[in-house]
Structures are given as structure tokens and as C-alpha cells.
Amino acid sequence: MIRTILLLLFVAVQALPAQTLPDTGTIRFEVGGVRIIHRQTDNNLFFAKLYLLGGTQLVTAETAGIEPFLLDVSERGTARYPGERLRRALARTGGQMGVEAHRDWTVFGMGTTTDRLDSTWAIYTDRLLRPTLAAEDVEFVRATTVAALAQRQDSPDALLDYLADSVAFAGHSYGLSPRGTAESVGRISREQLQRFHREQLQQSRMLLVVVGNVPREKLRQMVASSLGTLPRGEYRWTTPAAGQQRPGSSVHIEPRRLPTNYILGWWEGPPAGHPDVPALRVASAILSGRLFAEVRSRRNLTYAVEARYRDEALTSGGLYVTTTRPDTTLGIMRVEIRNLQTFAIPTENLRPLIQQFLTEYFLDNESSGEQADFLARAELYRGDFRAAERFVADLRAVTGEDVQRVARTYMRSMRFAYIGNPTQVNRFRLMGF
């Protein structure tokens, strides 16, 4: 009951028109060339996420990870806050800042209270506009980043994620790691960081999403005096290419002596703005539930199995499982996909499943930062942040025939990574999905 009430409250808030009260709700505007989406709140918190568009489309295998590397180094000092002064100044505000690397963009975010907004914003924007990038700071961050990236080899799941993307999106920008590799970050020079900052930090790459209690005119002034001083640039956001033929094998097997075997495969979906996307979300959720029931609960073949769905500019979905009996498990998973493709679910039977999905989705996305991501995806993937308000209606309009159709259309030609005992799996079984 509590979950249902929370969901209804969230949906009610989403449906409020921007003109209900002066200076409330959510609106979009521009300051210079910087696009801004502002969701007004009535508390004393302020969260901002700056989406630097492009992600892995801006890099090569040799320069992968350069933008998050640059932003991480900016934490070591700026023109106004050199060295330790920056960390002491931020500590006094109680604010937080962070960098998130994604395949479609890099996010530089901040959170603070409204009474400390001016001082926190000054530090935040100085990191963007005037990082010192001192040689010793570059080397310090490089060493810690390379060490963290090298640990992929020690974590089967982290290595599996990396290998599966490399196989599924070979020759595509999505095949590159947003954080880069130990090799790429190890080679990026200070001069390359400086050049990237000089050439790529431009207003046309920026979408700023703010969730917080700040007058809109004040927000305009804050942006105009900081991000608004950057070159406008001519960058245009585009969805990565879809439907390309992938080079190389569709299966990568990494021999490891482990207690179990790790398997992850991806299929390519449509662009995020495609009308099939709501049905694909539902189909993936249904498949995940069936796999859990059949593979884990009924057959006891694993502790971890799921169908995944990735909400990116170019959507994708996949199968993940850890098991000591991979051939048997993969056979069952293939049967469940074929059942979804062969037998249409009565539409009336979808309603409670969709309601459960919506409840869990909104409860997982109720923080201010997650609301910012929700608005940004709607703006960039569907062309209008207000498309987020249609999310619930779009899912509830999905029929059983829609689920069957998208399963047939997209859940095929999967490309897999496998880590474990190579003698326990038949490569051709993986190639048969």
C-alpha cells in the first residue's frame, strides 16, 4: 500500500503543468548556448547535474576515459582554489561533487544546501572552467585511476561487463569503456588533457539539469557568469549509429579457474525514442521474472540470473547468469526467450506486471539526482523533457501482442562473453541465441 501511494504521489507531481504557480514546476530555458532544465522544489536542497554530451563518441580506444580523467584531476586544484584550498573550501560548505562516466555523456554533479549555494557553485564552476592540471596532480590521479581500472582483472563481474561490451559493440563507440582502460589512461598526457579542455568544453555540449529551490532569475545569473562565458561551439547531439554489422566473433571465452562460470550477452535494441521501447522494457522485465522462476527457483541452477535492459540513446538488452552448469542453464534460457516470442500474453494479464514494474522503477528513481537523469534522458533521447510525463501512459498502453512482437524483433543475434571453465560450455550454444 505504501509503495502504491508513493507511486501515485510521484505520478501526480509529474502531471502538474509548469504554469500551475509562478516559479514552480519544471521548465526548460537557455542561457547563451547552455540548455537548462529546472525542477523547482520547496526544500532547502540544491542538486545540479551537468551533462557533457558525447561520451564515447568523442574518443578512440587510445583516448578513452579522457573526460572523466580531466574532471577527476580538477579536484586537485583550480586557479581560484589551488591545491588543498579547494578541498578545504568544499569541506566548509558541506557540499558534494562527483563525476559519472557514461557512454552517451559525462556527468559532473554537485549537491548542497541553498544557504551554501553561492560558495559551492563557485568551487564547482571553477573546477570546470579553470582547472590547474598541474603535472604532479595529473600523475597522482593517473596512478589511482590506472590501479582501479587494473582491478577489473580481479573481479569476474567487472571483467565480464567490460568484455561483453567489447564483443557486443565491436567497432562501435559503445564498445569503448567510458572510464577508459588502464592502458588508455596510462598513455593520456597532460598536454592532451589541456587540449581536450580547451577544445571540447563548450556550451553546445552542455545540458544542465537542476533540481532545487532557487529562483529562476538567480539560476540564470549563476549560469551566465560561469558556464555562459565558455565558447558556444557547434556540437550537435546525435544518437550513435544503429544496426551496424559487428566485426569479429560473437562469442568471447575467457578461461579462468573460478568456483562458477559468468555469462553475459547483449542484443541491440532500437534508438531510445523509438515507439517499440516501452514494449521492450516490459518484455525484458517479464523475461527476467521468468528466468528467475525457472532457472533459480525451480531448477536451482544459479543464485544470480536476470534479463537486463539498458536505457541509453541506443537501447540494448541482455542475459546474465552465473552457474556451474552453463550448457543446461543456457538451454533453459533459450526456451524462455522462444516462449516469449511464440506465445502472446493476454493483455489483461500484463496490467499487474506493469504496475509492479512502475512501482519499483519510481521507488528506485526518487532521489533528486535520479530525477535529473530521468529528465535528461527524456530531453535528449525523446527531444522533450516533458516526454517523461508520458512514461506511465506509454507503458500502460503496451499489449501482449506488442511484447511478442518486440521479443521476436530484437531478442536475437546476441553476442556473449563467458568467463570460467571453457570445457563446460558449448560455444555453438552461445552462438545459437
TrEMBL record:
A Pfam family that the UniProt record links to this protein: Peptidase_M16_C
Species for this entry: Pseudogemmatithrix spongiicola
Superkingdom of the source species: Bacteria
Protein name per the record: Pitrilysin family protein
SUPFAM superfamilies (UniProt xref): LuxS/MPP-like metallohydrolase
Family: Belongs to the peptidase M16 family.
InterPro entries xref list: Metalloenz_LuxS/M16, MPP/UQCRC_Complex, Peptidase_M16_C
Molecular function terms, GO-annotated: metal ion binding
UniProt keyword list: Signal
Annotated ranges, domain Peptidase M16 C-terminal: 188-350
